[in-house]
Specification:
Length: 912
Amino acid sequence: MVNSLDIQLQNQTNSGQVWAYISGIAIQNNWRRMFLKSNGRDIYYPEQVSAIGSPLAEDCAIPLGPRATPSRKLTFFLNPGPAVVEPSVLNPSDPNANVNFAFAEFTLNSDQLFANISYVDFVPRLPISLTLQTMGGGPVQHVSGMAANGIDQVCDGLRAQAARDGWPWDRLIVQPSGQPVLRVLNPTHAKAVGASFDGYFEPYVDQVWARYSSASPYQIRINTQAAAGVTAGSVNGDNQLVFGNEPFPKPTSADIFGCNSGPFTTGPSPYRNSIIPRLAAAFQRSAFLSVDDFPSDPSTFYMRDPTNHYCRIVHNANLDGKGYTFAYDDVQPDGGADQSGKVNAGDPQTFIVAVGGNNAYAGDGLYPPPLPPPPPPPAADAATGSPASASPGAPPIPTATKPSAYPGSDPSWGGGSVSASASASYAGSGAPPPQHVSRFHKISAKAQNGLFNRRQDLLWMDHGKGEMADHHSIDDVYRSTFKSDDPEKTEEGKKIVDELGRLKYEVQHDRQLTPIRDDGFPDVDIYNEELEQLGNPSWLNVNWLYCECYLFRRMSTSFSLSKHWKNYDVFARQKIKTFRSSRPAVIELAARYRTILRQIEEGRGKPADEEAEEILFQEMCEICLWGNATDLSLLTNLTYEDLQKLQGSEARKAAEKNILVNNLPDAYQVLKKARAEGKTERRVDIVLDNAGFELFVDLILAGYLLSSGLATLVVLHPKDIPWFVSDVLPSDFSELLNALANPKKFYETPSEDDLLQDKTPEPLSDKEADDLSFLFQNWSQLYAGGQVLLRPNRFWTYPGSFWRLPHVAKELFEDLKTSNLVIFKGDLNYRKLTGDAKWDASTPFIEAIGPLGPGSGVNVLALRTCKADVVVGLQPGKDEELRALDGNEAKSDARAWAWNGKWAVVSFSSGR
């Protein structure tokens, strides 16, 4: 039985202010209408009014700050009853018509919480994501919603569809003059904007009727998923589709879009009412003529015209493909994948509503598995609280805010909504980046001797990332294919293995690079245009950076174009294996981290020892620096013992002398100054590199920065496709927390290698397990509280350098400018920062990073262990000295000392 519910609202927009509203019906209080007051705790029950359009007697706008800048609130009215007049997107005279707002729906009663994101009426500019944590220890449920600029993807899709078929899909876009797009209406409301879809579905209905006519051998078979079981129907002589004794006349287009008129009108018959949702869903999704059994598999949805392209496009724009786009979008086969984007549980603990599109698991289909349940929140006031609504008003790529928590929700709550409003005149419309003219920058004059090209001694199929990428990915898919019981998935897996095998052959035999197949993502054009500009080269005659990126992007296409393998991380098995192998360092750092946090807590309120703090800051950053010595793609033959040598405190101390450039004091001063100035939000961004142990140490650093007060928010930037073998995906974050949630199970369960070698893992001591569990408790609280955010962006897997960032990903660039410090991890990010050019090693770092240097507005800190030729910022003569130590003559073109990860640079640039 549900007795209480904690609700957290998170504003992850760039808006100065978001207003949240929670409205609903109190089931156990005579079904009275109710609102949560602006304090987020007290309930307001509107009293009877005599006049239509009376205002609310209480302020019910919950501020989600953090800054008190003006933005428009929503306006609710009362009519006699009292009845609540909620905001309308269809009435142009409604005071909310030009307000950017969104809502989520939920039901909270004694049995359960049920909530979803709804697009049944419109797509808002303001995205919403939902997260539900339960008391029973079950998996965290998460619905990602759209990215911050998801509405722009919807608009692009509707405009393209209108150009293809001539129907007014583009008329559904609501865009006030001189403003960004405000919302997109569902076709059910097309006439509100002067558009009509009359006659749209009728040709399709005629085809369906013809297939199932009395003269045809075919029948519709519907699994009612109720007492009636499977029932069959066909068209009779009166031109009615008949199931049992229930006739269904031909639906019109309006009937199909609306799902509640004509043959889809519900009535007293439970049998008929069990057929209606499944019949209506099959028409919406144009699944008829593909199969005869319903509900059908998602592979049959929206595959033939005419179909509801609004639904298709909106589902594609949602990061996990989920959301209610029509009334019966929750119809699915028994055991099938949910399409509706719901979260529900009979034992809800914490319900999180995030607005802004930045707490979602962005990943173009690579959304992670559920997080393990976080620890219970601190004991909450038992005062009556309730679900909340949130206010829109956010430019696309946000700065996150702290959540507001509303504990102890009254179980008398029934149907409710979380609404959000903000000014429609906010800046930042999510406009597309500048066109191709600025995509391919030249390197400055000092680097005109060219980009690094492939060398025979670094050939992909001999030593580099490509060998591991191709060989292990082929093996991984092959093994997974033959574990599947699904014949269709097995066949797809074989096809992917063949494609990866052909790719490997092309690299080994220096074949010409071919255009990447269109899998629906915009970076395909970027890759293919650059390939054309490069003259369609072969593998050994193209610059190193482009062909490495091309390899992994092309591999990704084989999976993204499949049906059953879209979400598959071909490198996940290797990442987990390597993290298990890092056990000694993980245990050591867990104990060290716990001690540091205890010391910080004990020192609160006492005079600060800034010298000690700076030393500790440098230690944390150096741990983070050397963590990427576990880069899977370049250390392919290391034994378990070798990995241990790369990690651990003694190795770190010995390695300090190998840091050739160390600008950590400059970075510390930036963060210390921001804290001294009392800035409410002190943000650090980390552009991630490797998963496993390196992600572990990244979170060590993030937790330290937040605990010490050097930051109030840490934004992590993972990739959104499997990249360079070991790079972090959002799913790797979840996998890491899942491992720490039950460390004994993770480390003491024999791995595949252990089983083959008949080895039993050494058990963890109680203290070791306790230290690791502490990490899980701490990090999951930081994540659930909105202090640690995941924010992928497709730009990180574009080809070429980060010199393009201000032009190709303008919104991302502007967002990074709001951060106090942006940390770029690892070798590849360093190469991209410096354009992967043949700089003289003494070239200043601030010069080599071009438009991201002084005056850019971005404070850059690069943590890099050297694994490729490009190095800058060294003292004159140091490069020659290192070449001589390595056995190479100083005049040699090869900088071999920079290939093995022995040396490191920590370089800082102040962009302000």
